[in-house]
Specification:
The chain is built from 9 helices and 5 strands, in the order E-H-E-H-H-H-E-H-H-E-H-H-E-H. The protein is α/β, with parallel strands linked by helices and about 210 residues long. Helix 5 packs across helix 8. The structure holds adenosine-5'-triphosphate (ATP) and magnesium ion.
């Protein structure tokens, strides 16, 4: 298992991971509606990683929208997004957990890990040293569809036509997420099923997590 910080706070941290187009946001939105209904608006905090701290940089934008990837130092991208994740933990996630909130996050550090491995960076000690600053989620859901279906879904979205889509990379990332799902004990969701069906697995895991905690 990857060494992350201990989640020793009163709240709960729930994260959604998966490749682009796998159905993370769809599952997250259903989860947030369900939790708000059960625990009230104020108890639930919705977050997204990477945050604008790294998203709005030229480097990140270049990676997302430009095909000239030979100019990109991928370790620089990893440093950037890891810095963002560490700061986001310190500034937002840990304080909310201390207050007993339920934090729901769209993507987390496993996105960095899956992408790094998929690009062949397998021995990044510096990365895993810094990752100890990041709290381990109480539950990580992996939205999983076969990569071909994820690509089909991405291409069907009108707002995504300008995005740089590296299909072989997405296949590799998908494989790495599947591997991580075993070693890191993710709850795998079959998001090739209709959202309502996939959400049943979320509900079961949430009940187990929050039982006696209302
Ligand atoms: N379970 C599902 N069944 C059918 N279609 C789905 C399902 N979940 C999501 N979709 C569709 O697939 C597309 C991608 O879903 P979504 O935006 O939730 O994925 P994502 O993982 O958040 O993607 P991104 O990484 O790009 O943010 C959307 O058009 C959505 O309507
Ligand atoms: Mg999304």
């Amino acid at each position: 298992m990857i060494k992350l910080g201990k989640q020793k706070y009163a709240g709960k941290l729930i994260v959604f991971e998966g490749t682009d187009g796998a159905g993370k946001t769809t599952m997250l939105e259903k989860t947030v509606a369900y939790l708000r209904e059960r625990y009230g608006e104020n108890r639930i905090i919705v977050q997204k990683q990477p945050t604008d701290l790294s998203r709005k940089t030229k480097l990140f934008q270049k990676m997302m929208y430009c095909s000239r990837h030979d100019e990109i130092n991928y370790r620089a991208v990893q440093l950037l997004t890891l810095s963002d994740r560490v700061q986001h933990n310190s500034e937002i996630i840990i304080p909310a957990l201390k207050e007993g909130k339920i934090v729901v996050c769209d993507r987390y550090i496993y996105t960095s890990v899956a992408n790094m491995f998929a690009r062949g960076y397998r021995h990044e000690k510096w990365f895993f040293d810094a990752a100890k600053e990041i709290v381990r989620p109480d539950v990580t859901f992996l939205a999983y569809v076969p990569p071909e279906l994820a690509i089909e879904r991405i291409k069907a979205r009108p707002d995504e036509c300008t995005r740089h889509l590296n299909e072989p990379l997405l296949h590799n990332v998908s494989k790495e997420f599947l591997r991580l799902s075993k070693s890191e004990k993710f709850v795998k969701l079959d998001t090739s099923q209709p959202p309502e069906t996939a959400f049943e697995s979320v509900k079961n895991a949430l009940t187990a997590l929050t039982e006696g905690n209302r």
